[in-house]
Input
Amino acid sequence: MADDLKHTTGEATFLDANEIVLNMGPQHPATHGVLRVILKLDGEKIIGTECVIGYLHRGVEKIGENRTYVQFNPYVDRLDYVASVSNGLGYCEAVEKLLSVTAPPRAQTVRVILTELNRIASHLIWLGTHALDIGAMTPLFYTFNQREDILKIYENYCGARLTTHAFRIGGLQYDLYQGFEQQVKKFCDEMPAKVDEYEQLLTTNRIWVARTQGVGVLTAEDAIEFGVTGPMLRAAGVKWDIRKAIPYENYADFEFDIPTGKNGDTYDRYLVRMEEMRQARRIIQQAVDRIPDGPIMAKVPKVVKPPAGEVYHSIEAPKGELGYFIVSDGGLQPYRLRIRPPSFVNLQALDRMVRGSLVADVVAVIGTIDIVLGEVDR
Amino acid sequence: MAEEKKPDPTVPPSAPPKPAAAAPPKPAAQPWDDELARRVRERFRSAIKDSLTYLGQNYFVVDAASITSICGYLKHEEEFNYLVDVTAVDYPKREKRFELVYILYSFPRNTRVRVKASIAENEPIDSVTPVWQTANWLEREVYDMFGIRFAGHPDLKRILLPDGWQGHPLRKDYSILKQDEQWVQENLHIESGQ
Output
C-alpha cells in the first residue's frame, strides 16, 4: 500500500489499477449550474481534475461587437446573473471612461448603494447554496428570505429584480423613488441581527468547521499565480480590493475595512465573505445618509460614439475583479469587447485546491469559489 | 475596418447616425515615458516598438517573438506578478492580423500595464504559461475564439466551444449568424441552432 501512495503525490498520466475516473456534472446539484468536472481518483483521493465548461456559452463578446454601446448594456446583466448590478456598473464605467465622461455625484452615490446591496445579495446566495452543498439546509431559507428585501428595493427602483439594467452610460435613467432611503435604512437596521444568526448557525458548528477548515487551501502565492481575485485572494491573506487599490465611483469617500483571512481555506473564505457583507452595509449606511442632490445623468450624446481607442476598466465585483476591455474604432458599436470574468479565472484554481483531498471536498470547494456559470461561459 | 460594421439584420435600426455634434478634439495615445518605460526600452531595445499611454493607461507595443522574455522580465524584475487577462483583437486588413493584449498588474506597485504584440494568421506565438499559470485557460480561450496557436502551451484545446467545432467565432470574418451547421446537426439532431 505504501508503494501505491506515490501515485497520489505525483502527476499521474495514465490509469493504473487503483485509479478510476469519475464524472461530475454537468447536471449535478452541487456544481451550481452546468459545470462538468472530471475527477481522477485513487480510492477516494483526488489525483487530478479537469473542468469542462462552455455549456452556457452564448457568445456575449461577439454579440457586443454587433450591438451599439447602449444596446449592449442589458446583456451584461446576464453574465453574473446574481450580481447584475455590478456587471452593469463595470460596463457603464468602462464606456464612460472611453467617452471621458463622469457620472454626476448623485448618480455615483446611488450606484454605490445599489452595487453594495448587490454584493450582499450575491454573498447571501453564495452562503445559502454553499451551506446547502455541505449539508446545512437551514441557512438557505434565511438567506433567500433576506435577499428578497434587496430584490424588492431593485424592483421598486427599476421594475426588475434580477436582470435589472439599473445603470445607464453616464449615470442613471430613473431618479430614486419616494421611500428609497427609508427602505434601505430599514434593511440595514435589520441586517446585523440576521447575519449574526447565520453565523450562529455555522461559525462554531462542528460539522461546518470540520467540513471547511483546512479544505481547499489556496496560499497567497498560488492565488496570485493563478490570478485569483476577490474574497478568495483576501482569504489567503492578501489585503487587496479594487475599491481601495484603484478606487472608482466615489468609493474613496467611504470608510470601510477589507477583511482578510490567514489560511486561505474554505472556512476563512466563509469568514471573509461574512465580514464583507457587514462592510458593505457600512458603506450603504454612510452613502444613504448623504445622497447629494443634482442631476442623475452626465452630458452624454444621444448616440454613443466613443473616439477610437481602447480602455481597460475593472471593478471589484462580489466574486473578484470584473474587467471590461473595449476597443473602439470610433463607430457605433465596439470593435472588440472583452469581458474579464472573475469566476472563469478563479475556477482555474480548482485543480490546485482539491488535489489530494476527498470527493466530498470538491463539492465544498466549488461552493467556496462561488462561480456563476453564466459568467464563466459567457 | 469600416466594412466590418455592417448593420445586423436582426436588430431594428437604432437612432440613425446623425452628424456628430461639434466633437471635442479627438484624444489620441501619447508617448509614455517614465522610469519603467525607459528601463524596459533600454533592456529590450528594438523588441519594444512603442510605449504609449491613453486615458491614463500605459501600454507597450512589442515584438511577438520576445513576448515570453518581456513578460518574464516584467514579472520577475518589475514585480508585475498578476496576469489579469490575455485576449486578442482581430484586424483582418492589417498585415499582421491579430493583436494580442496582455493585461498585467503589480500588487507591490499598484499599477497596471498592457503589453500588445501582433502576429499574422497561422503564425504561432510563445505561450506565457511558464510565466503565469493563469495564462493556461486564458490562452485556451484565445485559441478557441481566434484560432491563435500558442507554442509551448501545455494543453492547447478548445475551452468554451465543443472540441469538434469548426471555425473561430471572434474573428471578424465569422458572421454573428454563422455556426457550424454540421456539428449542430450531428450532435444536437436539429436542422439549425438559429
Notes: Chain B touches chain A through 50 residues (CB under 8 Å).
